[in-house]
Each structure stands twice: as C-alpha cells, then as structure tokens.
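Much of what follows relies on a compact textual record of a protein's fold. A record is reproduced here so that you can trace the correspondence yourselves:

. . .
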Amino acid sequence: MLFNRSIFWPIAAVYLIVALLLDGVEGLALMGLFLASVFILIFFADEIGSFTGYTSRGKYIDKETPGCLLSGIGWALIIGAAVVGVIKGLAWLLKS
C-alpha cells in the first residue's frame, strides 16, 4: 500500500503539469478533479471497500469489496488516461 501512495504523487504531478501546458487553467482544473477521484480510490480503497449497508437506491450491500480491487481500478484509470493521451498525441502528429 505504501508503494501505491508513494508512486502516485510523481505521476499526479506529471499529469497536472501536462494538463496545464496543453489546456491551461481549465485543463488543470479538470485534471485535478480526475486525480481527486483516483486519489480516493487508491488511498482509501480499504475504507471504501468495507462499506456495507443500505444505499441511496434502497439496495443492500452485504459483502465487502476487496481494497486491492478498488486500488487496481484507480491505477487502471491512471494508466488508461495515459494510453488515451499517447494515442491522441500520435494521431495529432500523424495528421499534421
């Protein structure tokens, strides 16, 4: 878990710098929102996964979700965003 937390900060810094350089303050704000949701999934995976009880739709959650699954989803989102960014960059280069 400590590895996840220590590697997140440099990656987040790179994402924020790239967003600021490419899209300005608006891109920085949107990237900040994205990273905040990923931050919650990675840093508080066990706490979120341990939730059981009623939801707002009246459904009942009776089993805990493994924290490693939620953390993995957070990392998949970060890696997926990088892959999409690289593909868009390559498409832009090939188009020009």
